[in-house]
Design goal:
alpha/beta; 8-stranded parallel beta barrel; binds iron/sulfur cluster
Length: about 350
Amino acid sequence: MKVEEILENARKAFKLTTKHFNNKITFERALFLGWYCNLKQPCKFCYMATQKDKIRDPRKARRRLESILAEAILMKRIGWKLEFISGGYGYTAKEINDIAEMVAYVQKCKQYLNVGVVDLDNINLNVIEGVVGAVETVSKDRDWICPGKPLDKIKDNLLKAKELGLKTGITIILGLGEKEEDIEKLLNLIEELDLDRITFYSLNPQKGTIFENKPSVTTIEYMNWVSSVRLNFPKIKIITGVWVDKIPMISPLIMSGSNVITKFPLFSIFGTKEAHWIEKEILSTGRELLGTFTDIDILAGKKVLEKTPYVEEEINISSENIKRVEELRENINERIESYVSKVLKRVV
Ligand code: SF4
């Protein structure tokens, strides 16, 4: 497609997004459970896969529960929805269920899962809003890039989730060798699965992977993917991820139909000049930003966020998990203080 067409599509996509989603942009962030994935054939772009041999005891590569719950509480405080609860493969259905219940309980809000093929028969669906499938790429090399995550199984899982009344989404990483003609394949997949949302990321090439010295996606290419999805699916939620080295991509992605910005290392840049720049990028499009990346008083709990994307819901979880959270309260509060003080040391 010629660049003029891409810009024209972005113009139309921006207008269409305003029509269906008003003028709001939000931040989201994945809640990670750990640094280990037990896929025998890991994905070829993945940082966790490069670390696998260095981890002797996988259980120690998991985050502590109080740290996960502290982060969930802080995310709500600053108005960032959890994009999904995520981890590598290797968690049992009970472990996923317990964590999802406890996160939903502390946030008073249902959650999305992105934890591989989900055993939906053994999860408390009352705390789940949706399931995300890590499709990653629609390039012809997908089976080679993600040998351990067959697309058919992901699709079956998403269709089952839909049947059970859950929302569904997929993740797509741009920069894995996809071609412009693959956009059509993505559009077909969205239609086939009747997806409610899609998350795009730009590849952050990792040292030790085959993509280490490869260029990632360009701004114009990224705009083309996002605006094509928006024009074909006006009501789908589009989440776009960029790393800190690609901040100037944010406003073009919003102009192309993105609703949500994700993928930032939250605590290491909260309140810094990069965080101010990110907010400015968003506001420069004329959109309204819910949530904050810069207000230290809100992060520290001294002030309450005025406009939040969170809508509190009734969350019912097992009494056993309520007890676990309440017994951990002190540790959770200590973790919250520790996250906040690290940010304060950096910016005040
Ligand atoms: S499933 Fe996720 S964590 Fe596991 S190798 Fe693939 S990208 Fe990495």
